Amino acid sequence: MLVFAWPILGTRPTIRQVGALILATTGVLIVTLVGTDAPTEAPGSHLAGNTFLLVAAVTWALYSVLGGRASSRYDALVTTAYATGFGALFTLPLVPWELASTPMGSLDWPVWTGILYLGIVSTAGAFYLWNRSIARLGASLPGLLFFAQPVVGGLLGATVLGEVLSTSFFIGGTLVAGAVVLSARET
């Protein structure tokens, strides 16, 4: 996010922020590229997934900076409502395809409750909190917290699925945590 915040918002990153970004990026690369110690995995077997993660991270960073800029000018709730509305418009072309595979009549009230929860709380609510945090804290600290996702995902995989974490995972995770602490000391 720092990379986009400088040209879009005009906020020049500090040496500490750049150091934290390098530390966090290194940690995530260690966690995602080195992978697990599982002997069954071929080298490079995660290339497509890691490429999608990189594209997702870049687009999320751009959205966050633009959303943060909008949320600093307008209420974060209004910004989130517009972003959610436009996001819904882009998914509308997929509705006929989904309805062909899952007829609406087969969805009972627990399913509709789950859909509403995912749409309102997990999506719109989380986006609102994210946009508000960017508007209040700037791009640095929330941007580095985004780097914690693969670490949290690995920890959840170990806890819930019994996956085995490698030494490289803990080294990378420690670098990510150190980057967040380094950045938080500045704010």
- Indicate the overall shape: globular
Given the structure, what is the number of helices? Answer: 9
Radius of gyration (CA) equals: 19 Å
Number of strands: 0
Largest sheet: none
What string gives the helices and strands in order?
Answer: HHHHHHHHH
Describe the structure in your own words.
The chain has one domain. The protein is 78% helix and 0% strand. The protein contains 9 helices and no strands. It has helices spanning 2-9, 15-34, 47-73, 76-91, 95-101, 109-137, 140-146, 149-161, 167-184. Helix 1 runs parallel beside helix 3 (47-73) and helix 6 (109-137) packs across helix 7 (140-146). The longest helix has 29 residues, at 109-137. The radius of gyration is 19 Å and the shape is globular. The model has no long low-confidence stretch (mean pLDDT 85).
List the helices and strands and how they pair.
Blueprint (H helix, E strand, L loop, with lengths): L1 H8 L5 H20 L12 H27 L2 H16 L3 H7 L7 H29 L2 H7 L2 H13 L5 H18 L3
Helix pairs in contact: 1-3, 2-9, 3-4, 3-6, 4-6, 6-7, 7-9
What distinguishing features does this structure have?
0% strand; mainly alpha; globular; 9 helices; 187 residues
Concise description?
By secondary structure, the protein is an all-alpha fold. It has nine helices and no strands.
